């Protein structure tokens, strides 16, 4: 299979480059194009100048959604289309400016396969009639790993809390800073990020109101942290293999978090067991090497057939089941 993948040039290039490299091993040819903001804003010109669509069995778009939705008329003409989307959760978030807009966008592309990083999100998209599949977020197993360091940060989180979309996370974490001494750290990606994760004993994740688990959960698990994460529900946990107090610590409010934290501090052997089980799960299921095979399988499945009908000077695109 010959694959063209269009990706964001400004989208966490270090971490995602490793993912694309693992993807490339799965296909006869894998043409990965790093799209600048200008390229993404004018896909029609880019395709006219730089892409022969007849060379590819699949064309995968992993681009900025806000740029995609402005060009749906052209995107409808792209054959063998697959969309990889990390942010489809915003389709169902009450406070998101994109609430409902992913569904409206995909309704214009009913033959496209949507690869979503949330199990419940992909299930909901299928209920709405879309060809959606679940692809969990992963991590670079060559960079993120347990270094066996002394963990001098008791409670920690690594990342940016400024996003307007994830305000509930910001409020919760800032409260944990004020009342429990949580450390919020920022680092460059790669080795510096892994070093910081390896300093944290209890990693406090707060994916509140999102409907899926963010990538930092599996990265922190892989680095040997005891990961506390906002419970996203039974279906999501089962799909990922998350088991409360076995390989992760799930909570639904601050009270339950503090209760479980207190229990683990009184029982360090259990805390160590949770950390080791979480690390094992991450290594077995969520490395980019493992996920590359899943990605290949999703691209190999037949796509919905797009039917083009003409009426006078207008073309109408439909799909046939």
SSE layout and pairing:
Layout: E1 2-8, H1 13-24, E2 29-35, H2 37-41, H3 43-50, E3 58-62, H4 65-68, H5 72-75, E4 81-85, H6 101-107, E5 113-116, H7 119-127, E6 131-134, E7 153-158, H8 167-180, E8 183-185, H9 191-197, E9 200-204, H10 215-222, E10 226-230, H11 234-240, E11 249-251, H12 254-266, H13 268-285, H14 288-300, E12 305-311, E13 314-320
Parallel strand pairs: 1-2, 1-3, 3-4, 4-5, 5-6, 7-8, 7-9, 9-10, 10-11
Antiparallel strand pairs: 12-13
Helix pairs in contact: 1-14, 10-13
Pfam families: Glyco_trans_1_2 (PF13524)
Domain Spore protein YkvP/CgeB glycosyl transferase-like: 189-290
Protein name: Spore protein YkvP/CgeB glycosyl transferase-like domain-containing protein
The CATH architecture of the largest domain can be named as 3-Layer(aba) Sandwich
Measured by DSSP, the beta-strand proportion falls in 15-25%
The oligomeric state is single chain
Ends apart, CA distance between termini = 23 Å
Sheet bearing the most strands, described?
6 strands, parallel
Number of E strands: 13
